[in-house]
């Protein structure tokens, strides 16, 4: 609160400009107040003053806390593709060694890999030329914001020290690197525009939209370890090798094909520059899925067809025989399945659009004719397997009601009894259920000697880093206290389905029946829909579907869907053939009536 004036009791005070005294509104001076502040309007004659010197502006150096060994941006993308390429070469060598493939397979696989990179649908960053044409240590590089940056670990050079020669050399080297990068980008874009057809070229992204997904280096899903397996599949199809997706997945699960934990297969000089996200993109957590692999392989095959490189069809005969043996079938079942599949007209290519039409269109057709079947873009092995399951279902029924033949010419007469055949499937599935790769809790005390040996053979491949530079302090300890002999060269890595089934000499053929009320093969056929969620599939049919799905490494619903589509297609084919026969018989009857009328008109009238 303001003090009142002791004379007039006023509370309004102000300072006099000349005397610097505190005076109230009536002019009374505030006593006991002293102002010791000296206000000087002009400096004295002998006062010292320091003249300010204008110095040139110094560029502020931003010290980054990032690790200079880790790559980011385009350099990280290029390094990621380098890691994928080295991993692909190791996968290629492993596959040639495991399956004894010819050396031509390596040449074909490299060409397919080049096509795979060209079809990624994005601009592949060029090799970082600034790393090769980098200035010597100690020289500064210009920043985008106009400042300068210095190499990591060195202080910035003093601006007062002129270095015209080093600046001139660094500028010339940077200009040379920039010109080389622009020339390489121009040449690659021009050559790509000349060779790229309009139908197969990647569509340009809109300018206002980002090209890559958030958190990923590449916008294409094929730029992943799964894309390497798709390239291997296409190369195997070129050589007509009867391999399936399940074969590659089995090799991946047993760590015989580098896919899981691929950083163990890369040298330390390359893994040193990987960030956490890049290393995570290179390291899949689970084995690949058959449907995902087929999607990548079919896209690659269709893209290669746009460049005029058409892959051949699958070598279907060995794969069909393997599918028959996976269901404990006989050569008779192989013949019947082959005839049924030819009737269904299934595609045996990686993409249905690459399958030649059964009836080619005329050359003057207004638009290209394509296949119109539903759900055809599936793996060829699954298509063949669906035909085998459908053939078994037509003969046995697999609905709880027995089908019996009534004459010697019935194909079911040469097949085993349904009870014995289903029992062999059930026993083999239970035996394969104890596979060491199955994920379920199991005690070591419950393992057999063969399972224990298989586990001890698999564990080092999964847990131990095979690189030589990595320190293994426990190697001498294991060799000293746990000496284990190496596995024999003749031991198979996986059991074939044929070795898990008993020979056909132990089965009993299906007997003939004279009962007129007995169901024959193909009668009372029931089509089970994939949309049925109430579990009405019979137990026998479910067992066959599960065994087939285990062999093809797909879901049970995939096999059920394939069989359902083939059943409806077969029903449509039968209806069309019956309608064609009726039309033909009706046309023959009309022609006979016309001939009869003509013959009656020619004959003379009887008197």
Automatic annotation (TrEMBL):
GO molecular function term, any single one: zinc ion binding
Subcellular location, record wording: Nucleus, Nucleolus
Domain Rrn7/TAF1B C-terminal cyclin, chain residue ranges per copy: 290-457
Pfam families per the UniProt record, alphabetical: Rrn7_cyclin_C
Signal sequence coordinates: none
Principal location listed in the UniProt entry: nucleus
Keywords attached to this entry: DNA-binding, Metal-binding, Nucleus, Transcription, Transcription regulation, Zinc, Zinc-finger
Positions with biased composition (Basic residues): 209-221
Chain intervals for the UniProt region annotation (Disordered): 132-222, 477-500, 578-607
Biased composition annotated in UniProt, kind: Basic and acidic residues: 585-596
One Gene Ontology biological process: nucleolar large rRNA transcription by RNA polymerase I
InterPro entries: Rrn7_cyclin_C, TAF1B/Rrn7
Ranges in a coiled coil: none
Compositional bias ranges of the Low complexity kind: 171-208
GO CC annotation, single: RNA polymerase I core factor complex
Record field: compositional bias (Pro residues): 153-162
Protein family: Belongs to the RRN7/TAF1B family.
Name by which UniProt lists this protein: Rrn7/TAF1B C-terminal cyclin domain-containing protein
């Amino acid at each position: 609160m303001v003090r009142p004036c002791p004379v007039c009791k006023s509370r309004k005070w102000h300072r006099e400009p000349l005397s610097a005294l505190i005076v109230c509104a009536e002019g009374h001076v505030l006593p006991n107040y002293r102002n010791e502040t000296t206000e000087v309007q002009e400096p004295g004659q002998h006062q010292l003053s320091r003249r300010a010197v204008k110095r040139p502006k110094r560029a502020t150096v931003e010290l980054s806390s990032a690790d200079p060994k880790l790559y980011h941006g385009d350099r990280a993308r290029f390094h990621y593709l380098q890691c994928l390429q080295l991993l692909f070469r190791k996968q290629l060598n492993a596959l040639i060694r495991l399956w004894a493939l010819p050396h031509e397979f390596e040449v074909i696989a490299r060409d397919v890999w080049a096509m795979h990179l060209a079809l990624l649908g994005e601009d592949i960053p060029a090799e970082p030329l600034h790393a090769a044409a980098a200035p010597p240590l100690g020289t500064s590089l210009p920043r985008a914001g106009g400042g300068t940056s210095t190499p990591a670990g060195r202080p910035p050079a003093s601006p007062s020290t002129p270095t015209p020669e080093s600046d001139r050399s660094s500028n010339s080297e940077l200009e040379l690197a920039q010109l080389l990068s622009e020339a390489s980008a121009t040449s690659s874009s021009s050559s790509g525009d000349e060779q790229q057809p309009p139908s197969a070229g990647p569509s340009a992204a809109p300018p206002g939209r980002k090209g890559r997904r958030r958190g990923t280096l590449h916008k294409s899903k094929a730029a992943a370890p799964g894309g390497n397996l798709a390239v291997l599949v296409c190369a195997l199809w070129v050589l007509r090798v009867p391999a399936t997706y399940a074969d590659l997945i089995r090799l991946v699960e047993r760590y015989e094909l580098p896919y899981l934990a691929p950083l163990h297969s890369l040298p330390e000089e390359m893994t040193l520059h990987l960030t956490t996200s890049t290393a995570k993109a290179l390291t899949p957590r689970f084995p690949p899925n058959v449907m995902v692999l087929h999607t990548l392989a079919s896209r690659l095959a269709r893209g290669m067809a746009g460049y005029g490189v058409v892959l051949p069809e699958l070598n279907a005969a060995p794969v069909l025989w393997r599918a028959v043996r996976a269901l404990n079938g006989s050569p008779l079942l192989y013949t019947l399945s082959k005839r049924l599949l030819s009737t269904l007209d299934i595609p045996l290519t990686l993409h249905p659009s690459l399958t030649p039409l059964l009836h080619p269109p005329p050359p003057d057709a207004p638009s290209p004719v394509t296949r119109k079947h539903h759900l055809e873009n599936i793996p060829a092995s699954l298509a063949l397997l669906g035909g085998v399951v459908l053939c078994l279902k037509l003969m046995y029924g697999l609905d709880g009601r027995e089908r019996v033949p009534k004459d010697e010419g019935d194909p079911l007469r040469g097949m085993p009894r349904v009870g014995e055949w289903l029992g062999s499937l059930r026993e083999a599935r239970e035996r394969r259920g104890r596979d060491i790769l199955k994920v379920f809790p199991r005690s070591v005390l419950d393992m057999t000697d063969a399972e224990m040996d298989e586990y001890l053979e698999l564990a080092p491949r999964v847990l131990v880093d095979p690189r030589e530079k990595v320190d293994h302090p426990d190697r001498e300890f294991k060799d000293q206290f746990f000496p284990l002999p190496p596995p024999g060269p003749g031991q198979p890595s996986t059991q074939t389905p044929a070795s898990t089934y008993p020979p056909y000499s132990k089965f009993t053929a299906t007997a003939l029946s004279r009962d007129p009320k007995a169901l024959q093969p193909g009668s009372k056929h029931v089509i089970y829909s994939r949309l049925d969620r109430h579990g009405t599939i019979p137990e026998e049919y479910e067992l066959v579907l599960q065994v087939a799905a285990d062999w093809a490494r797909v879901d049970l619903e995939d096999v059920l869907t394939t069989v359902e589509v083939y059943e409806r297609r077969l029903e449509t084919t039968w209806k069309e053939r019956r309608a064609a026969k009726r039309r033909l018989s009706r046309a023959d009857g009309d022609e006979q009536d016309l001939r009869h009328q003509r013959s009656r008109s020619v004959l003379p009238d009887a008197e």
